Amino acid sequence: MDFVVYILFSDHLQKYYVGQTSDLEKRILDHNLGKSAFTSKGIPWKLVHIFACSNRSEAIRLETSIKRRGIKRYLQDKSIL
């Protein structure tokens, strides 16, 4: 099963959110339906970027690395923003 690390952005909150999942479509839908406590405040969330990972442990490592660096700074470092 492949995993992805995804980054979302909320215009309403002016904030980024990073997460990992094996079902991206369902996870984004959950965020935009208010099924997650933090992200329910920022609906609608827009997908900014996806990083493919070969397994869950790799996805968790990448997600943690992005959170440590700061999502916006990480995206700028990778020339995504």
What attributes characterize this protein structure?
single chain; 81 residues; alpha+beta; GIY-YIG endonuclease; 3 helices
Structure report:
This protein has a single domain, classed as GIY-YIG endonuclease (3-Layer(aba) Sandwich). 37% of the residues lie in helices and 30% in strands. It contains three helices and three strands, in the order ββαβαα. The mean pLDDT is 96.
What is the total domain count? 1
Oligomer: single chain
Q: Uncertain runs with pLDDT below 50, 5 residues or more?
A: none
CATH class: Alpha Beta
Spell the H/E element sequence.
EEHEHH
Shape: globular
Query: How far is the N terminus from the C terminus?
Result: 29 Å
Strand order across the largest sheet: 2-1-3
Strand content: 25-35%
State the helical fraction: 25-40%
Structural class: alpha+beta
CATH architectural category:
3-Layer(aba) Sandwich
CATH topology assignment: GIY-YIG endonuclease
CATH homologous superfamily designation: GIY-YIG endonuclease
| Count of runs of 4 or more consecutive helical residues | 3
Summary, kept brief:
With 81 residues, the chain is an alpha+beta fold. The chain has helices at residues 24-32, 56-69, 71-77; strands at residues 3-10, 15-21, 45-53.
Secondary-structure map:
Blueprint: E1 3-10, E2 15-21, H1 24-32, E3 45-53, H2 56-69, H3 71-77
Helix pairs in contact: 2-3
